[in-house]
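User: quick one, fold this
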Amino acid sequence: MKRLRHLLAALALGFAASAFAAITPDTVVTTMTEQVLSQAGARQGPIDATQLRLLIETAVMPNVDFRAMTSRAVGPRWRSASEEQRTRLMAAFESLLIKTYAGALSEAGGASFRLKSTIAIDPTTAEVKSDVKVKGGREPIALNYRLALQGDRWKIVDVGVMGVWLVASYQTQFAQVMERTGGVDGLVQVLEERSKTR
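Assistant:
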């Protein structure tokens, strides 16, 4: 189940902003879903890990407001962190997610996406509700995500899988790590170690 959640979060992060202005969030979702699923799930047999990482780095991560996502996951201690600590946190967190999602996307073959609705929270924030059905007879799984309008682009700021939001989940984990290790430096070290572990 944990691996499936990583898969859906990876797909959700792929439902990111297009380079074109004035594209609605639901159009962005549909376009990017097709790109991610076609490249990650169309091949027969195992997908090369290097190719998966490249897909995530080029098609997914540039479309995420990663600074906002990291700062919210770190919580109040982000405000007192130095710029060097923030840079290392973002780099280590991004590397960890890329590694995690590369493994999850290897199971994306045969997945199908269904857009359900889009809610305008305010003029610059939207939540898209959808579900994803993966092969193997499982029931469709609820997948929601939030985007923020930045200039003329919508960028992902959070992802919800079966009611569990990505940022809140990591916020809990990060708080426990910082409590155990003594602060931001300890969290940086743990994230860097995890991102390097196979």
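User: anything notable?
Assistant: The longest helix spans residues 83-105.
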